Input
Amino acid sequence: MCTQNVDDLHERAGSRNLVHMHGELFSSRCELNCGVPPFSDQSLYETVTQIPKCACGAKIRPNIVWFGEYPLEMDRIMVEIDRCDVLIVIGTSGNVHPAASFVHWANQRNRPGAAKVRRYYIGPERPLNAAAFTEVILGKAGRVLPKLFQIVR
Ligand SMILES: [Zn+2]
Output
């Protein structure tokens, strides 16, 4: 599962095997990506001098993808899209890339012998990339998903 959300609501709901492509609000990492992995951090730093240093000596920063930065784990996301049979996209505008491109990648994959990916959108409003989906289902995910899971099994 891949989310653009930076909160921990998926984890609190029990989601597993999750990619936070835009990072995680409650963790920090080295500003130089020196190789020290991100770590859980819910501290409030009120001044610059309070911001701790990484083991390499650089400052730490929120483990969030800022505008203009490349989303996290894109290689893993592309591998999963390439091997999926069903792509379910929930509640996005279809306007922010690269996430808005996931449905196109699934639709255009060219693996020999692979079946077409069934691509479902669920959300309260029609997304801008609606034409790329097998089906667009307007409604709240909590109501639509249980029915959809029965259909796509
Ligand atoms: Zn570092």
User: Anything to note?
Assistant: The chain is about 20% helix and 20% strand.
